[in-house]
Amino acid sequence: MRIVKGLILLALAFASSAFILSEGRVTPLRNVATFWCVAIEGRPNLKNDIDNLCRSGAVDCGPIQPGGNCFQPNTDDFHASYLFNAYYQAHKTCNFNGDSILEQNQDLSTPTCKFVR
């Protein structure tokens, strides 16, 4: 914490977000790096990864089911990326047997499917 010209500025880092507290107002900082855990395209085990995550109950698989907001595009790459990222944002680990990678500023959200930040 530091005092600048009578204002208290406080930067908080939590869940890949940063904020400034100034004069009783909290303002998000712009251009702060955000990370997403995404599938490495074309990996042969993505379907198994999807099945394992859904079976474990560690993430909500409803959005990638038919009729869900994240069903389209209907590819293993997209569905795995959605689930990997949801797991990463909750548990801060992106280790799915070599099928995933942590990317900076790689938001794969679509107009109907928002990836968790």
Automatic annotation (TrEMBL):
A cellular component term, taken from the record's GO annotations: plasmodesma
| Signal peptide (from-to) | 1-18
Task: Cite the SMART domains for this sequence.
Answer: X8
Q: Which InterPro entries match?
A: X8 (IPR012946), X8_dom_prot (IPR044788)
Identify one Pfam family in the record: X8
The entry's keywords: Signal
The highest taxon in the source lineage is Eukaryota
Ranges for domain X8 come to 35-115
Fetch the PANTHER family from UniProt: BETA-1,3 GLUCANASE (PTHR31044), OS01G0631500 PROTEIN (PTHR31044:SF52)
Can you name this protein?
A: Carbohydrate-binding X8 domain superfamily protein
